[in-house]
Structure formats: structure tokens, C-alpha cells
Amino acid sequence: MITIFKAQKIITMNSSRPTATHVAVRDGRILGVGSMEELATWGEHKLDEQFSDKVLMPGLVEGHAHTMEGSLWQKIYCGYFDRMDPDGKIWSGLKTIDAVIERLIEAETNMIDPDVPLSGWQLDPIYMNNERVTRHDLDKVSTTRPIGVLHASGHIMNVNSMALELAGLLKPDINHPGIPLGDDGLPNGELKSPEVMTPVGPHVGFDRIMTDCDEAGLRAFAKLCVRTGVTTITDLAARLTDDGVEMMLRVTGEDNFPTRIVPFRFFMGLPPEELIKTVVELGKKSTDRLRLGKIKVIADGSIQGFSARLRWPGYHNGAPNGLWYITPEQLLEIYNLSLAADIQVHTHTNGDQATELVLDTMEAALKENPSADHRFTLQHCQLADAAQFRQMNNLDMCVNLFPNHHFYWGDEHYRLTVGPERAERMNACQTALANNVPMAIHSDAPVTPLGPLFTAWCAVNRITASGRVQGEAEKISIADALFAITMGAAYTLKLDGEVGSIEVGKHADMVVLEDDPQSIGAENLKDVRVWGIIQGGRIFAAEDL
Amino acid sequence: MSAGFSNPLPVTIIGGYLGSGKTTLVNHLLRNANGLRLAVLVNEFGELSIDEDLIEAKSDDILSIAGGCICCSFGSDLTAALIDLAKLDPCPDHILIEASGVAVPGSIANSLSLLNEYSTDGIVVLADAETIRHGVEDKYMGDTIGRQLSDADIIVLNKVDLVKPDVLVAMNCWLSKLNGQAIVVEAVQSKVPPEVIWASFLGRNHSPGLHLEANHLGMLTLRPVGPIDVAALAKSLAEGDLGIIRAKGFATSNEGKKTLIQVVGRRWETSPAADNFEDGIVCLGFKDALNRAAIADLADL
């Protein structure tokens, strides 16, 4: 059965037929895009006019997100900025520590079982003059129920006294750089690195494995995708245990699951040879809506956590250089084995030295295993300079830059971490495009909110949280930004032949918009309203979720 | 296992860059465990490269090894693996953590300090005598390798048969400048006396003289004559250039409290102990280097 959708405007992202008014869908795929007369030539059809006042675009593709965003919404949102949950409720941003405590008290009051921990997430004291939350603050919420609040960075957690006590950490004489002490010599409740969070996490509702979502979380995540227009999205680093894969296959296989998930196997836990073997096997389990068989490697840490690896002159505030998560030898082995097995690898780098290592290693690997179309991708790659983008182009690498980060933490980078000059060239989208590096842009949800149109707004305007334009020269056009959140991201996933444009033969994946992103104006791009999506020809309205 | 703080599981952290001989050392130690039940935790990339003849069984990613030892990989979360390990029955006598090539061993020791079930029994960092000087100059890994060496209580300078004697002297000198707190132990093919790696020889598995001779090691027991300034004693044992690699035992403080003294390299610590232990501190060092007279003099500090 053919359905022809009539729209006010269809933005196809296919340069040979950039706009149209009608799109025909059969068997979940696009049969054609054009005028009513052209499409009617396919024969018997049903005309669907429900979108005749709406704008259709290719379903948005998010190339760097984590499904755990869905699981986090089971906890209390404590962020500074307004944020939409999977049910469409907007949680107001909390501007003071007192407001955070107040929201937690309200949540605590509604809890019936006294033993269940209370968990919050997305706290970011950077916007509150770096005022610290202590266990005494959280003790105002409860002294008997364990409480933990995860920071936006994911690398710091605040807990109350009960949580410390349950973990055996409410004691004097603790000597650990990640556990600041209060005036009384006892931990003040701040846990400042993932390894110190592990002993406490299970007591406050944060399981040790932060990379994996649960079933309810995956369903919630999918709702967010519908609300933000996303029809294909990565889960960029999952452990992918047998149980986890079974669950994801089952849930994504349900008739009404609305989006396509592309999970990448986290590189740790297996020696390279076994890693590649495991991922090859995983790839064989792929379905249309769960695309397995790719690897995520992490080379360094984060810039705001001072754990990214920077080249000279290092951190602006003099902090020592950051941490490596892999040796050059192991990186080379993973690249070589993956190239030989046609497995795609995306590598997280933040600092420019980590990017340099990846580029050098890639160059060596490609000499041993020449590959015409590997699409190995640098993820974040926030500090790359022009020379590095040229090298990416020479090595046929892709990049997925992080404009959202620029909005949320750009001021911090300018002032503290890398200083003005490098802060202005962070996430250098224009330089990437000028050097013909295939580029996507991302949210890294849950680190920042999922929403490719917001990400596009960030890349187009380069405004920081304080309202400054930072890096005028790296702004990109609306057209380039819209390409990046559709075809650009699809290309980095080797899915550009299937999704990313509205074009005959591709999956019928589209986002239904109330406004036209091409004419709404650069400053308003983030305000484009999403009605819902069409995924594989199935219609999902945000308001019906 | 009870989480009693008087009886934590001792852990030796084995660090060093790729190719420095960590896996060879682990196999050597498993072969020479002498009845000690070792649990080996291998880092996130490490293959469980245990010599085939040592393996008795494989199940659920755990290798069972002759003599009641086990070996498993800790994946991406060492702390979580340690929490699980503490629940094992029977409980191992000693833990070896084979850190990854990029790991900073001091950070691992910091993490361990938060787990009441464990105590660090020393950071041993291997250095390949042939390549270490280049290693610390490497544009990517140099500072990481430097930090590894700086964190060590004991630096095992490995593969010394592959460098000339004068180079070796210079290297020893360079290492003590880099990390004045560490004792440098030379080795070939990671063959380090197990007594250097763990202090458990001072506990119930104590079998004095068994292979001390073969390893040119000497041991003596210092018996304080009465209550003593335990901190000063521990400090002297650690920092007094007495040829001590490790020391462990009990003394009674001037306040009358029974105290456990532990020395690894030039690091020392004291902690409260149960009253029923007899005073006496066993000191281990290379036979030729141990300054027996000076150590004995500390008895009435």
C-alpha cells in the first residue's frame, strides 16, 4: 500500500531534489519525493494530508549520545537549565543550592519506602559560583535515607551522611585526592572521581555500571527521541553484555519502538584481539533498529575535568596534563585489527594531544591495512587545530564535534581551562568543513540535553551560556548545520545510504516540524517545534506518547 | 570475610609500561607462591596470560591456578571487582593487581584506601632497563611513565642482563634521583624474590630461610626492649638507609598501645593492632646490604 504524505514543505537533504511537497512511502521506505502528479504515477495510493501545514525533514541522526539518559530520568533532575523529560514535562532549572535541596525534599516527602535511596542528577555548581554541596546540605533532606546527586560532568557526586556511613566512608583519616574533608576531618560528602563513586554508588541508586541503560530507560530514551525528532541514534559506548543485547534486541524489535539505536561496544574489558572477535559476532545480531558491530575507544579524559591530554602549552591555569586511557600500542592494535575486519572504530579525544595520537596512530594503521572507506571518526575532538583537520582529511577520517559543550562550558574554557584563543577555536566546525572533513555535531546526552536542532543552533550561533559569541569565525551556516544533524551524522555511521535524506529507496524516516528551520532565522533555530517523527513509515506524535 | 579493619587483605599493585615484564612477573609469582593463595586481577586490556601448565580450570572468566590461586580480569571497574572479590569464599591470602600500561599506580592505591577490606602492601613498578630512558622521553607517554616510576615503593629494574654494567650504574643513579622514596631491585626475566612483592611471609605462611639464600636475601627480627616511639621506629626503618626492602611486625607504643608497623621501600605506616601479638619486627633486605648492627640499635630507640 502506498501512502503519499502532503506537506507544506519537504526539506530532503538530497541536493538533486532539495525541496518538494509530497513524499510517497511503501513498506516503510521512501518510494519517491516530488509533486503529487509525479508520485501518483506509482499507482494506487492513499493521500495523507495530516501534515499539510507541517515541514518534513529527514529524521534527525544523533551520532553521539548514551541511552542511559533514559535511565537517569528515573532520578530527580537537579540541573541549572530547563530540561524536558521523556514525558514532555519541562523541569525548571535550579539556580541555587537551596532550590536543589528544596526539590529533593519535595521528592523525599513523596517516597513511601524509607529504605529506598534518593538520587538526583545533572547538578552543576559551575553556574552557582562553584558553591559546593556538602553532606550537611543533603542531610537537610534526610538523615536516614541515603542520597546521592550526580553532577552534569558525570564525574562528581554529592552524597549525604547516611550514604557515606553505608559505604563505610564516614570516618576520619581518609587521605584521598577525590574525597575532600570538612573542618571536622570527615568527608564532606563530595566524591570527585568515578573510582571513589563506585563504593558509594550502589547505596544511592547509581549502579556501578553507568554505561548501560535498563529496559525502562531504553523506552524512556526512545520517547525523548520522538520529542526531539531523532530517528537514528547512537549509544556511544555500552558494555553490550549478552543480557543487555538480548534486552535491546527485544525492546527495539517491538512494533511500536520508534527509533533506530546504534550501540558501540566499549573497548575496555577485553584484550584487542578478543574485542574485535566479540564485535564481529555482535554485528551478526544486528537488526534494522539495532545496529551492532562497532567499537568506541576512549583516548583521554575531559577538558573541564583537567583529564584531557593537551599539547603545549597545556592548561591555562597550570593544571598538570591529563590522563591517557589507552597506550599507543594498544590503540594501534585495535585500529589494525578493526581495519582488517572491517569494523568501524570511533575514538573519543578531547585534548589536542589525544587527537594527535589518534591521527598518528591512524596513519600507521592505514599503512598496514589500507582501507578505502573506513570512516573512523574522532568524537568530541574539541581542541583540534586547522593542521589536525587537514590531517583528518588526508586520512579520510570523520569528526563529530560538540557545539553543545561550547554553549554550556565555553565560558569556563575561555576563563580557566584553555584560555581565550583556544576556547574560540574549540569545536571548529567551520574549519572542519573548510577542510572537507565529513562532520557531525552532537549532544553527548545525558551530558547535555538531546536535541539536534538545539545542537545546530549552537553550531550556527556559537553563543555561550553567558550570552557571548565565542569564535565568530567557526560559525557555520544553517544549511551546513542541518546537513550535519542528518546526512553528516549518518555518514559517520555508514548509514548515509539508508537514512539522512528523503530520497527514493531510503528508510521512511522523517521528522515532522511545526516551523521551517530554513527560514525561521539563525537565532531561532533551537525553537523549531517538533510535532513528532515518522520512522520506517510509522507515525509517532509526541503528544500521543 | 569479615570487614574487620584489623585484618584487611594485603594488595600489591604491579605497575609499569607495556613490555616491562608485568605478566612475566605475575607468572613467576604464581609459580613461587609457596602455599599463599594469590588472587591476580588483570587490567582492562590484559589477556589472562597465565602459563598453561599452571591453569587447573577456567570458568566464568576466572582461571583457577595450581595452589588455590585465581586470576581474573577486572574489566573497566577495578573498585567493583575488588568489592566482588572480597565476598569470595575461601578468601585469598594476597591480591596482586596487574595495572594497565597507562595506569597511574598511586591512583589505584588511593582507590584501595577507601575499601576497608583491603590494604596496600606496596606499589611495585617494573622498568625495562633497555627502554625506560626512551620511555620517559616519549612525547605521548613520557609523563605517564614518569608518574608510574614516581609512585613506586619498589622499582624492579628488569632485563638488566641486556644492558652494560656502567649503563646500569648510571640508571640506578638516575632512578634514585627520579624517585628517592623507592628501593631499586634489579631483575632478569622478572625473577624477583616473592618476599619483595609481598609481606605475607611475615605472617602465618612464614617459612624462614626457605629460598632467602638463593635470592641473596637476608632477614632479621628486631625486638624492641620495651614501649617505644613507634612512629620514630617505623620512620628509621624506612628512611635510615639500612638496606631494608620491607619490614613488618608489632611494637608497643609509649602509650602502651600495640601497634602494627609496616615498611615498604621508604614508605612506612603504623596502625593499631590487637594486644595478643608479640613485639617484634621482621626486616627483609638483600643480605649484603642489610645493616644488621644499625637495625639492632633501634631496639631501644
Summarize the structure.
The complex is a heterodimer of chains A (about 550) and B (about 300). Chain A is of the alpha/beta class.
**Greatest contact pair?**
A-B, 34 and 30 residues
Instruction: Kindly report the average pLDDT value of chain B.
Output: 89
Q: Please tally the β strands of chain B and state the result.
A: 14
- Shape call of chain B: globular
Number of DSSP strand runs of chain A: 23
Quickly give the structural class of chain B: alpha/beta
Would you identify the regions of chain B where 5 or more consecutive residues have pLDDT less than 50? Answer: 1-6
What would the average pLDDT of chain A be, to the nearest integer?
96
Order of helices and strands of chain B: EHEEEEHEHEHHEHEHEHEEEEH
**What oligomeric state best describes the polypeptide chains here?**
heterodimer
Distance between the termini of chain B: 37 Å
Which structural class is indicated by helix and strand composition of chain A?
Answer: alpha/beta
What is the CA-based Rg of chain A, rounded?
23 Å
Global outline of chain A: globular
User: How do the strands line up in the largest sheet of chain B?
Assistant: 3-4-5-2-6-1-7-8-9
How many separate helices of chain A?
17
Number of helices of chain B: 9
Percent helix range of chain B: 10-25%
The percentage helix of chain A is 25-40%
Largest sheet of chain A: 8 strands, mixed
**Unreliable runs of chain A:** none
